[in-house]
Design brief:
Elements lengths: L1 H5 L20 H13 L4 E5 L4 H17 L2 E8 L6 H14 L4 E5 L8 H19 L5 E2 L4 H13 L4 H4 L5 E2 L2 E2 L7 H10 L16 H15 L3 H28 L3 E2 L5 E3 L9 H16 L7 H14 L8 E2 L4 E8 L2 E8 L8 E2 L6 E3 L3 E4 L7 E4 L6 H4 L4 H8 L3 H6 L1 E4 L5 E6 L2 E3 L2 H4 L2 E4 H8 L6
Parallel strand pairs: 1-2, 1-4, 2-3, 4-6
Antiparallel strand pairs: 5-6, 7-8, 8-11, 9-10, 10-11, 12-15, 13-14, 14-19, 15-16, 16-17, 17-18
Helix pairs in contact: 2-3, 3-8, 6-9, 6-10, 10-11, 11-12, 11-17
């Protein structure tokens, strides 16, 4: 504790506000149990630390947890390069972390000007943290989201007309990210810091009433003064989470009924006839699940986009030859036939796929968030989309059964299908229903199909 006081670099925070949402309780014990549950068996844990009260408290709680369990915690702070004070703030965080013996990694990210700067900064931050996790052997990264963040997010999403998915509780774990502090409010964390003789950085953005987050925070503060709503919002979010789980269960049943599967060319195929009597909500969720599987993007398409997908899928039950139409997030919908059966196929839009990549270096290569190939790589090989070429250009690489299934998969799925080319541009390998067709020595490479993995994983993960 004395070391913490000697390392006090951050200004003391403001005194407690009686109007804060103070969900108190056994903070230390509850946070440690949450870390036990969420961090798994990984020997390493990253903690994203901005210097604000929530993340600073999380860093100290995680340090105590790791010391008792023989784990290694790294404090990760990010400099977006957007404010002159950022360098001094990250240095202050590093000094506080050093008092607990924590290694600190300062990640510098570039944020393009223009557009929604806050959203761009968030995306860059999350990408940098995900990259840190991957480099650290898929170590989890703890984020300091609290019950206050949850309530504020609900207010913002209510304004945008969100449904159950958007209003449900934040997921305690999503991908490499864990949220061990969702049971507590900001006031409890600040109380914990004061007890340890520490202050925190007040982000100047917290005074900017022009941002959605701060507007929601001020609205909640005003409501709680006269008609407390935060606890009710959190209770509703909990009920909505359970209702989303029920919708996910029903969506999985519908997926089975309509034969949702990956076709020979990598598209997502289903029978539209099975959707004729299904509720629109479930059809939209099914479409969102297919789009997520193809793109890996964690956020569902807009409601109006899903509504178009619902209408198109139902129309396919009547018109089996519907032409290709754009959906969302770089995907298209098209009618196809396989073994004489009419199917709807959701596929990547070939114009939106990533450019080809050369297979070089000692690390695995990921292309278009769909295909991962691990070394060793033969020289002069690239991975990319087939493009709009005649099926005969690749059919000779397959057996007769695969040829028929691949050709019947639909032109959109075929065009976006991943292929391997030699340095002269000749196609030497192609993805098929049974794996990859091509030279035996090349096909011995470790090739992962991320679309198949996500499709098998179930419904799209909530944020």
């Amino acid at each position: 504790m004395a070391a913490e006081r000697r390392g006090r670099d951050l200004a003391p925070g403001p005194p407690p506000d009686p109007d804060d949402n103070d969900l108190t309780g056994d903070l230390i014990g509850t946070a440690h149990r949450a870390l036990d549950r969420l961090a798994g068996a990984s020997p390493r844990l990253g903690v994203a630390v901005s210097g604000g009260s929530d993340s600073l408290a999380l860093m100290l709680l995680a340090a105590d947890w790791a010391e008792a369990r023989g784990r290694v915690v790294s404090a990760i702070t990010i400099d977006h390069g957007l404010r002159a004070a950022a360098a001094a703030e990250t240095a202050a965080v590093a000094r506080i972390a050093a008092t607990r013996g924590l290694p600190v990694e300062i990640l510098h990210v570039a944020v393009a000007p223009g557009g929604n700067l806050l959203a761009a900064a968030r995306d860059a931050r999350m990408a940098a943290l995900a990259a840190w996790s991957a480099a650290a052997g898929d170590a989890p990264v703890a984020l300091a989201h609290t019950s206050d963040d949850q309530a504020e997010t609900m207010i913002m999403r209510l304004r945008r007309g969100a449904g159950a998915d958007g209003l449900a509780l934040m997921a305690p774990r999503r991908g490499p990210f864990i949220r061990p502090l969702l049971a507590f409010g900001r006031a409890a964390l600040r109380q914990h810091l004061r007890a340890r003789g520490l202050g925190w950085i007040e982000d100047p953005g917290n005074a900017d009433a022009g941002t959605d987050r701060i507007r929601a925070r001020q609205m909640l503060k005003g409501l709680n003064q006269t008609w407390p709503v935060t606890r009710g919002l959190l209770a509703s979010a909990g009920r909505l989470s359970r209702q989303v789980d029920a919708l996910d269960w029903a969506t999985r049943r519908l997926a089975a009924d309509c034969g949702l599967t990956q076709n020979a060319a990598g598209g997502i195929a289903l029978s539209p006839l099975a959707l004729a009597e299904a509720p629109e909500e479930l059809i939209g969720r099914l479409a969102a699940r297919a789009i997520w599987a193809l793109t890996g993007k964690p956020y569902a398409p807009r409601h109006d986009v899903l509504q178009r997908a619902i209408s198109a899928l139902r129309a396919m039950a009547r018109d089996h030859d519907m032409p290709e139409m754009p959906l969302a997030q770089g995907t298209v919908l098209q009618g196809a036939r396989e073994d004489g059966v009419s199917l709807a196929v959701i596929a990547r839009e070939v114009a939106a796929v990533a450019p080809p990549v050369w297979l070089t270096g000692p690390a695995a290569v990921t292309w278009d968030a769909r295909t991962v190939i691990a070394p060793p790589f033969p020289p002069g090989i690239s991975l990319g989309a087939l493009g709009r070429v005649a099926p005969a250009a690749v059919a000779h690489l397959m057996g007769p059964d695969d040829q028929a299934a691949w050709i019947g998969a639909g032109s959109a799925a075929r065009a976006a299908s991943p292929v391997l080319r030699d340095r002269d541009g000749a196609i030497i390998g192609v993805s098929t229903r049974l794996g990859w067709a091509g030279p035996a020595d090349l096909m011995s490479s470790n090739i992962r199909d991320l679309v198949a993995e996500r499709l098998a994983d179930g419904a799209r993960k909530r944020t």
